[in-house]
Here is the input.
Amino acid sequence: MPAKPRSIKLHPLEMQVRKTIQKFDMLLPGEHVLAAVSGGADSIALLYCLQKLAPKLGLSLSVAHLNHRIRGPEGDADEEFVRRISADLKLPFFSERIEVKQKAAANKENLEELARQLRYDFLRRTAQKIGAQKIAVGHTLNDQAETVLFRFIRGSGIEGLSAIHPVLDGLVIRPLLECGRDSILKYLTQKQASYVEDSTNKNLQYSRNKIRGELLPYLTKHFNPQLISTLAREASLAREAWDFIESEANRIFEEACVKNGENLLIHLKGFAELHPVLQKHVVRRALKECMGSLRGITFRNIESVLSICRADCSGDQIRLPQGKTAFRQFDTLLLTGQKTQPAPSFIYRLDLPGECRVPETGSAFRSIECSAPNAKAMKDNRSRQAYIDSSTLPRFLTIRSREPGDRYGGPRHRKVKKLLITGKVPSRQRAALPMVAAGKDVIWIPGFRPARRYEARPGSRKCILLEVIPDADKEKKEF
Here is the structure.
């Protein structure tokens, strides 16, 4: 009988990494994994673990290293170290050099944040170039605890406290996330594996280094010996809660929101009945969709938008970062970046009978002497026609823009503003609506019933038909 293939004995750390990979469905057999290796202890441990597990999991492995050029010769030495390790393991090696300091200074960006962004850009580009399905990075249990504490101190919602996710976008995986740093250093010692130390990790000017080197050790010693595991567990619980909230908020968003170019409309019917947490996250998702990201959006911005979503405050607006504005319009909320231009004032004479153009509204009005139809026909055509009692009219009418204090039908009658609010005409459209006036009295607004004291009776033999029609001249120009 042929001898059975010899099983590969795994180190406890390698067993934990395999368990984490299986627990979070990080990898499929046959996948190509790009390992991000800086040369530090965590990334070197990650590389050795993946290299050991590759035959068992049916993986192919490549190595990537980004030299940020922040530490000069020290960073160059790290790059050469990782290149040499990759060659020893007979693994393909990919590297790139970027002058991050110069880029950060030129664009006035945070150095750490830009370095992180450029690192992931490099990893994604490289993975796409070589056909790697996954990118493995070396975040550990300690990194998870530090991140939770860091975000809690700065102030963070439940999404932030969920901290480092085991899998990101189905692409980035973190196989060491349940491995503590002590066990990683022990593993490297037993393997007699060398690694490099980043001198900037000891610089206590950086908040994260202070948390790692001073705050966490102090809290562990004086408050909770198992603090690292406790904080990591809290992140896991927060992540579970966040996954549920996010899925519910996304479902509601898809049902209630419509995007049109740079504008986004939220239908608010039933919004007030949602749990406040879901209200908040629907608004967050809407802002993210409208603005591209939540950068610059604060808790106060979201609360301000929510305040006009929850209350009966049609017409209110909130200014947001990046030149965006939130408008409440009856049962909708409009998020837009378009600057509102003041509606132009206009006034034109309409003879009886006669016709006049209103370029500001892209329409024309005409008046015709006629007989009134039945009540149903008069009602069905109110969006563009009105039948007016001839005996109530002067020699001509005016078509004009709205004026303060306008009343529908004249003094002591209903205010035009209130009529438009009741008719749910968005505030941004009201100033541009054409008003048909007899003297100072507004007698008809297209879409509404004519003012009662001016309206012709059904079947009346002598009346004036007012009709709004598309501006033929404008149509010709557009054509």
Remarks:
- Confidence is low (pLDDT under 50) at residues 1-5, 472-479.
- The chain has three domains: 12-233, 261-336, 347-478.
